[in-house]
Amino acid sequence: MPFTAARNTRVHYELDGQGPGLALVHGAGGDAEKVFGGVVDHFTDTRTVIRPNFSGSGLTEDDGTELTVDLIAEQITAAIRDGADGSDGPVDLLGFSLGAVGAAAVAAAHPELVRRLILVGGWAHSTGPRDRFYFETWRRMLETDRESLKRFSALTGFSAAALDRFGHEGLAHSLADAWPPEGIARQIEVCGQVDIRPLLPAITAPTLVVGLAEDAMIPVEGSRQLHKAISGSELVELPGEGHMDWFADPTRIIALTREFLDA
């Protein structure tokens, strides 16, 4: 169970496989295992897969200072440098949701570290009224009624079709999950303050932006913002996909990732 240090943090990350580095970064309320545990085996035959946990997730510990995109990026960078030690060249980097925000910040600050960049369900800024309202609602639910937060997150995180596929029993079972973790509060605060627009023009790595067309949590417009601001990036919008639909069936995300990284 590897750890490394970044600023005021003892960063926990998962490390699997062998070969060129591939880093996978979770989003708010998730962790390395919950988000990527079902996909990591698709890459470990040819890759060293590094899955950082930023503050609030996994076993990562810090001094409780304000969590920012910059700090998340430092934690991701430290895990990549530690986990890819001795690997051949820069790593490929995939970030999901808030992890996409952090991954973009890493690619902008450390172009020498990132060979190719994939941003799934990400966004460039939270300054608009809808996004501020959404994350404020998340925060208030966390403080007052965690079961309502679970319900709200399911309703906005999955498409209607995915929720129906879960069925009544599956949805009832989701309420028994211990989620959300205590650390989500700080992560929600970061989500509501995101503005990486000044960083995006500095990204030089070939970039694939994956938008999720039925995403009610992080609307697909966020992916369009990233694509517009990152020179030479490619945008793919997946029809019928909610923010977290791919957790249940990651086939399309895995295929897009393989195709882009092998190009």
Outline:
The chain has 263 residues and is of the alpha/beta class.
Structure write-up:
With 263 residues, the chain is of the alpha/beta class. It has a single domain (3-261), classed as Rossmann fold. It is built from 10 helices and 8 strands. It has helices at 32-36, 69-83, 98-109, 129-144, 146-157, 160-174, 184-191, 221-229, 245-248, 251-261, and strands at 3-6, 9-17, 21-25, 48-53, 91-96, 114-120, 207-212, 234-238. Helix 1 (32-36) links the parallel strand 3 (21-25) and strand 4. The longest helix is centred in the middle third of the chain and has 16 residues, at 129-144. The protein starts with a strand and ends with a helix.
Descriptors:
263 residues; single chain; 8-stranded mixed sheet; Rossmann fold; 41% helix; alpha/beta
The percentage helix is 40-55%
Q: What class would the helix/strand composition place it in?
A: alpha/beta
Q: Total number of helical segments?
A: 10
Which class in CATH terms? Alpha Beta
Report the order of strands and helices: EEEHEHEHEHHHHEHEHH
Q: List low-pLDDT spans.
A: none
CATH topology: Rossmann fold
Question: Would you identify the CATH architecture?
Answer: 3-Layer(aba) Sandwich
Mass-distribution shape: globular
The overall pLDDT average reads 96
Oligomer: single chain
Q: How many DSSP-defined strands?
A: 8
Order of strands in the sheet with most strands: 1-2-4-3-5-6-7-8
- The gyration radius over C-alpha positions equals 17 Å
| Distance between the first and last residues' Cα | 32 Å
CATH homolog superfamily? Alpha/Beta hydrolase fold, catalytic domain
Beta-strand content estimate: 15-25%
